[in-house]
Amino acid sequence: SGNPSTAYDYTKRVNKICSREAISIKHLADNITYYIEKYGPIGNDSEFGKKSNNAFINALRRFKEFIEVKKG
Q: Which of 18, 44, 67, 68 is 20 to 30 A removed from 7 (C-alpha atoms)?
């Protein structure tokens, strides 16, 4: 269809949150629960998290799943 894959899109959105927060991907990974709460439905940045049909918060949630799988 010419549209980027969901995985590619989520990667861009996770990187955008790192840029927005001025943090490294490692810092995000180490503090993922905090950022999920911050961008979640009742967090301080919930409006940003809801952008693009919740793509930002969904990207953070999938990133958390990825981290948990990697930790084993």
A: 44
pLDDT tens digits, the chain, 72 residues: what are they? 556 698 899 999 999 999 999 999 999 999 999 999 999 999 999 999 999 999 999 999 999 999 999 887
Please report the DSSP string for the chain in residue order.
--PPPHHHHHHHHHHHHHHHHT--HHHHHHTHHHHHHHHSTTSTTHHHHHHHHHHHHHHHHHHHHHHHHHH-
User: Left (φ > 0), alpha (ψ -120 to 50) or beta: where does 2 sit?
Assistant: left
